[in-house]
Amino acid sequence: MSRFLPVAVLVLALSPAAFAQTLTPTHLPDDSGTIGLAQGWKLLPGSGGGVALLSGPNGALMSLGRPVAVVVKGVEQQFPDVPEVFPGVPRVDFTDAVQAQIDLMEFLGPRAGAKLLKFRAVEPAQMPNGVAAFTRVAVSIKGKPFESFGLYAIMPVDNAQGMFYFSEIGAPAKDYARLYPTMMKMWNSWSVSDKTLKARLAGAAKALGEVDVAGTVDSVVKNRREVAENAAQDWNDVIRQ
Predict the structure, then answer these.
(1) Nearest CA to 221 among 157, 128, 156?
(2) Degrees to nearest 5, angle at CA 64 with 223 and 184
(3) How far apart are CA 86 and CA 165, in angstroms?
(4) Fewest CB atoms within 10 Å of the CB: 18, 81, 169, 238?
(5) Contact 54, 46 (CB under 8 A)
(6) Residue 118: is it exposed, middle or buried by C-beta count within 10 angstroms (0-12/13-18/19+)?
(7) What distance in Å separates the CA atoms of residue 42 and residue 24, rounded to the nearest whole number?
(8) CA-CA distance, 102 to 110, in Å (whole number)?
(9) Predicted TM-score (pTM) of this structure
(10) Smallest Cα–Cα separation from 60: which of 189, 229, 217, 173?
(11) pLDDT, tens only, 101-134
């Protein structure tokens, strides 16, 4: 992952002056990966399948390798005769990772009392068969200021469906600068087992390749499966960095 990080982020994350804490290697609950935990951090329910969800001091949070099934904005126009298309699935932009992040937050944010305030920095990232970006944002969570930094990627399966992947770290605004070095060190320590990567690849192919609406022919489903496999493999390559 480090080859995609902005130079300024790398310098801060890797500098001895960053005062990152010592980490304790810890297995994910299903043994699908490992991550180094600093004092005061713990894995949350829902961690597994290579995904690491963590909580830390003063309300700090981390989500690493998290996938979300999405559909393109305006998907209803592609299926005018279908009464309800992909109900409950987030609608996001497929051409711009930053806009997709905004769309997803607008869709999911109200459930957690979260609201995007502004982008502080954006850095494009490489992502074959998709688009991605590193972003630094200010948000409000239940009325309290919160800062976060992460990698966000949108990988279309076809012109209707896709996967949104993200890894992010965040903390209350007053604690972000102090906790940032340790959170980055933990992020860099995270790894996913080969077995999990293969399972994720197969799972993505099945879940995305077989999601359908009435009238789609087998050849289209087959193509979706192949694109899903490519998208999953691309993400596996990214999280191996």
Answers:
(1) 157
(2) 135
(3) 19
(4) 81
(5) no
(6) exposed
(7) 11
(8) 13
(9) 0.75
(10) 173
(11) 999 999 988 888 889 999 999 998 887 778 999 9
Distance CA 232, CA 130 (A): 11
The one-letter code for the residue type at 140 is: S
Half-sphere exposure of 191 (CA within 13 A, CB side): 10
- Count other C-beta atoms under 10 Å from residue 78's C-beta: 14
The 3-state secondary structure of the chain, one letter per residue: CHHHCCHHHHHHHHCHHHCCCCCEEEECCCCCEEEEECCCCEECCCCECCEEEEECHHHCEEEEEEEEEEEECCHHHHCCCCCCCCCCCCEECCCCHHHHHHHHHHHHHHHHCEEEEEEEEEEEECCCCCEEEEEEEEEEECCEEEEEEEEEEEEECCCCEEEEEEEEEEEEHHHHHHHHHHHHHHHHHCEECHHHHHHHHHHHHHHHHHCCCCCCCHHHHHHHHHHHHHHHHHHHHHHCC
> How is residue 135 written in tokens?
């972003």
Closest CA to 97 of 165, 195, 144: 165
Structure tokens at 61: 């949070």
Strands 91-92 and 61-72: parallel
Residues 178-210: tens digit of each pLDDT: 999 999 999 999 998 877 666 656 655 555 444
What is the C-alpha radius of gyration for the chain, rounded to an integer number of angstroms? 18
CB neighbours of residue 17 within 10 Å: 8
Length of the chain: 241
Tokens 């998709």 found at: 130
